[in-house]
Amino acid sequence: MGNNIPDADAELEKSDPEQHLSDFIGYTMTRALSIVRADFARTLSEYNLRAVSFSALSIVVAKPGQTQTQLADALQVERSNLVGIIDELAGRNLIIRAPVAKDRRRHALMPTTAGKELAAAAQASVADHENRVFGCLTKTERAELQRILRKFRKMATV
Amino acid sequence: MGNNIPDADAELEKSDPEQHLSDFIGYTMTRALSIVRADFARTLSEYNLRAVSFSALSIVVAKPGQTQTQLADALQVERSNLVGIIDELAGRNLIIRAPVAKDRRRHALMPTTAGKELAAAAQASVADHENRVFGCLTKTERAELQRILRKFRKMATV
DNA sequence: TATTGTTATACTCTATAACTATA
DNA sequence: TATAGTTATAGAGTATAACAATA
Q1: Do the chains contact at B65 and A7, CB–CB below 8 Å?
Q2: Closest residue of A to B126, CA-based?
Q3: Per the domain annotation, does B9 fall within a domain?
Q4: How do residues B94-136 score in pLDDT, each as one tens digit?
Q5: H or E segment at B111?
Q6: Count of structural domains within chain B
Q7: Per the domain annotation, does A89 fall within a domain?
Q8: Which positions 55-84 on chain A have a beta carbon less than 7 angstroms from any atom of strand D?
Q9: In this structure, is residue B41 part of a structural domain?
Q10: Which of A3, A92, A124, B157 has a 20 to 30 Å separation from A98 between CA atoms?
Q11: Nucleotide nearest to B34 (CA to C1')
C-alpha cells in the first residue's frame, strides 16, 4: 500500500498543475467565472450592491408586483434567505413591500423611483463591466458563448 | 419620493422575470454552471469527494511533490483553508505529507497508490458526467465553448 | 526577518425547521 | 390544513491574523 517516497524529478517536467482538470469544461468555466465575478463585484460595490441584491432589484424593476416566494424562485434562493435581501433593499428605499388586498399574507414587491434609477445606473455599469471583461474576445466569440450557454440552460436535463 | 402602489396589470405581459439579467454573459454563465455543479457534486459524492478535494487530489496525482502553499495557489484557496482539505485526503490515506529534507518547514504532497486509483476512477466518472450534462450540445458546440473559455482565461486582464 | 504550515476566528452563504398570520 | 413571510440556527465556504518551527 502506497506510502510513496518523494520522487523529486519524475513528472516535474509537466509545468501545468491543472493538466487533467482543464480538460473539463466545468473546471474551465469555474475559473473563467471567478475572473468575471471579481470584476463584477468591484463594479457593484460602487452601488453598495451584492450580486444577489443587484439581481433581486433588477427583477423587481423588470417585473413589479411579484411576491417574495416568486422572486426567491426566480433568483434560486430559499425564501427564508430572501428576507434579508429584501430588508436590505427596502431599508435603502429601493423597493417596498406593498400589501396585496386579495391575500394579506403576501407582499407585492415594487420598485421605488430611487430603485428604478439605481437599477438603471447599475445595469449600465454592469454592461460596461461586461464589455471590459470580455473585451479579450471577439464580438463573434462573445455572441457564440452567449448562444451556447443559453442553449445549454434551455436544453440541459440532468 | 416613490412609494409606488402595486400596479396589478402593467408589465405583467412580460413572462420572463430574468429579461435584462440574461443579457449578461456572466448571469447566463452563472446559471449554466449551477446546473453543471449540481450533477458534478452528485457524481463526486460516490467517492465521498467534494469539488475542491477532487481538484486537490487530481493535482497532487498529476504533479506530485508540491508544497501546500503551491497547491493552495493552484487551487486558488487560502493556505490556511487547505489544511483541512489535506487532512481529509491524508486521513483517508489518499495522499501523504512527506518531509522535505532540504527545508523542514515544507511538506511534499505525494499521492498514495490508493489515491492514484481513486483519482483515476473519479476522473473517469467526471468525464462521464461531462458527457451526460453537456450531451445537449453538439460536439462542435462543446469544443467551441471550451476554446472560447480557455482563450478568455488566458487573455482576460481585469 | 521571512516563510511554511497551522490554529483560531469571523463573516458570508446556504439549507432546514418551526413559528405567525392568514387563507 | 396549507401557504407566505419570518425567525433561528447549523453547516459550508472564505478571509485574516497570529503563532511555532524553520530558514
Answers
A1: yes
A2: A24
A3: no
A4: 999 999 999 999 999 999 999 999 999 999 999 999 999 999 9
A5: strand B107-111
A6: 1
A7: yes
A8: 67-70, 79-83
A9: no
A10: A124
A11: C14
